[in-house]
Design brief:
Helices cover 17% and strands 54% of the residues. It is of the alpha+beta class and 345 residues long. Strand 8 and strand 9 form a beta hairpin. The longest helix has 54 residues, at 2-55. It is elongated.
Length: 345
Amino acid sequence: MKHLLTLLIISGFTFNLFSQNNKLEIKKQELENAKSSLAETQKRIKAIEQEITQLTPPVHWKKGGFGALNFNSLGLSNWAAGGVSANSVTAIGNIYRNYKKGKVEWKNNLDLAYGLVKNDGETLRKNEDKIDFLTKGSYGINDKLSYSSLLNFKSQFAPGFDFSDPTIEDNLRPEISRFLAPAYLTMSLGLNYNFSDYFSVYLSPATGKFTFVNDDSIAAQNIYIPATLNDDGVQFYNDKYRAEFGALFNAQFKKDLTKKINLTSTLNLFNNFTDVNTANRKNIDVNWETMINMKLTQYIGVSFYTNLIHDNDVAIPIYEGNNIVGYGPRTQFKRLLGVGFSYKF
């Protein structure tokens, strides 16, 4: 009886162990079947995605932009086109249209801005005015390097006045800028290198820079086109037009730092090889613009803009105390901080 009981216990244990092993093998087989089914499903998904890609028309154009109406706190220092530090209202906008197909790429960007300020005891004044159009065509050598050509046009919409002398009545102040006075046109051929999707560098050894002052009274002030000397050492003026030829360096950074913060920064450096004043050929024209846009809500945003310019040919008033003692090159700096309504499209 004792041996029979032992045999039954051993048999039960063996059966239970066999049953557990059988269940384990079944589950392992189920797992293998599931993995096989998953692999087949993934292959099918990939095949369908490829079919959709083939059937979807290619998108060669990308477009977008933004518009904003900001309440700004503005500070100006040695700004050639005129203006005052004050609180103001400014409208800014950007539109871009970019094309890419194979090795061909064409980028177009238009920046616009216009602002007005009204201080107590003063007339309505302009404190921001900008037209900046850039178009650049490229043909790829490889994934990062390409042959490129660039055209850039800059001007402003409305008249700007000289407020440097507080004793002059506003209605008697001289104009120092207006549409096409000045205007700058830059054309160049060179190489473009894309370090990443958001950072690129353009270098041109063959760049033409043209300055236009399409207003006789503004041109006669020689603010934007300096007086030059002829071969006999006699001073003469080419008031309304100036052509320069030299080298251009352009660096562009444009990236969404977060879903709500975008940073755009552009640096332009130009050196004139053909300046009549040979001592001035060592000077480099600098134009550095930076814009930070931050969305607070769907339609409320904050923007911060800076622009640093140094052009040895632009005459800026030189002060001793409150008195103007002469005119000469100065570093111009503009900052613009705004909170207001914005819309991205």
